[in-house]
Write a structure and sequence with these properties.
With 137 residues, the protein is of the alpha/beta class. The protein is built from five helices and four strands, in the order αβαβαβαβα.
């Protein structure tokens, strides 16, 4: 298991017991990560007392388990996992629940919750509609 590399928003973590992991598929192309890292950085500025990190299912690191390990080591006692999937396919329905079970077994003293995939959130859907309409006009 590898340790996630530090990012500017992770370096600012304080003694909070809250964690948020943005969980995405992953890609071999390092530029693919830029939007997710930008979202994490923005969240960190608006929620400075929360541990914020990105994790990936495959093709790049850090993994969900490795990211959670770092958060637990830094004192997180409640960790939310936000799946950054547009659709709810096999990874969200099958792979992620297995990983969540693994985290719960590894860290029974930590409360893990998994949110719905961002692609299911009405606010994101409306934001996409707004982009489409504004781009068209």
């Amino acid at each position: 298991m590898s340790t996630p590399t530090s990012t500017p928003y992770q370096d600012a973590i304080d003694s909070s017991n809250l964690g948020l992991i943005l969980f995405a598929h992953g890609s071999r192309d390092p530029l693919w990560r830029d939007p997710l890292e930008a979202i994490a950085a923005r969240i960190a500025t608006q929620a400075p007392n929360t541990h914020i990190a990105c994790a990936y299912l495959e093709l790049c690191e850090p993994t969900l388990v490795a990211t959670a390990a770092v958060m637990v080591e830094k004192g997180a006692q409640r960790i939310r996992v936000l799946p950054m999937f547009f659709g709810v396919g096999k990874h969200a329905r099958e792979d992620l629940p297995v990983l969540m079970d693994e985290l719960t077994a590894l860290y029974p003293h930590v409360q893990f919750t998994c949110e719905q995939a961002v692609g299911q959130h009405p606010a994101l859907l409306q934001a996409i509609v707004n982009i489409a309409i504004n781009e068209h006009n």
